[in-house]
Amino acid sequence: MKKIESPEGRSVRLLRVGEQVRHVLSEVLARGDVHDATLQSHLVSVTEVRMSPDLRHATVFVKPLLGQDEEVVLKALRTNTAFFQGEVARRVNTKYAAKLKFLADESFDEGGKIDQILRTPHVSQDLTEE
């Protein structure tokens, strides 16, 4: 059977399971099911979940609203990893429960840097129409 891959190089199945995990984690955080003062006082966005090829490991990229207290929020997420893994195992039907690893999402910062570079006078002079 031929393996179907997306343009990013990951299989469609990995992307689909990653999205399911992302939705579960987003719902748990939005509903406030976690009994943690830090997570209840901060709005946290789950921006992406990347699954390993064997679906046993998931890297979860998160970003607190406005990027405030990022390290404190990451510490709280890592403290409650067992709870999140249990919720994911219960709600996502896979053979193995995925081990979650929480990381800060740096893509917004990278996008901001690129936007700042594009707005510099040296670069913007090339973008003007003649």
TrEMBL record:
Q: Which gene encodes it?
A: rbfA
Q: Where in the cell is it found?
A: Cytoplasm
Subunit field text = Monomer. Binds 30S ribosomal subunits, but not 50S ribosomal subunits or 70S ribosomes.
Q: Which residues cross the membrane?
A: none
Pfam families the record matches:
RBFA
- Protein name per the record: Ribosome-binding factor A
What is this protein's function? Answer: One of several proteins that assist in the late maturation steps of the functional core of the 30S ribosomal subunit. Associates with free 30S ribosomal subunits (but not with 30S subunits that are part of 70S ribosomes or polysomes). Required for efficient processing of 16S rRNA. May interact with the 5'-terminal helix region of 16S rRNA.
UniProt keywords, alphabetically: Cytoplasm, Ribosome biogenesis
User: Could you tell me which NCBIfam families the record lists for this protein?
Assistant: PRK00521.2-5 (NF001802), rbfA (TIGR00082)
Q: Which Gene3D superfamilies match?
A: 3.30.300.20
Q: Which SUPFAM superfamilies match?
A: Ribosome-binding factor A, RbfA
Family, according to the entry, reads as follows: Belongs to the RbfA family.
Q: Which organism is it from?
A: Sphingomonas humi
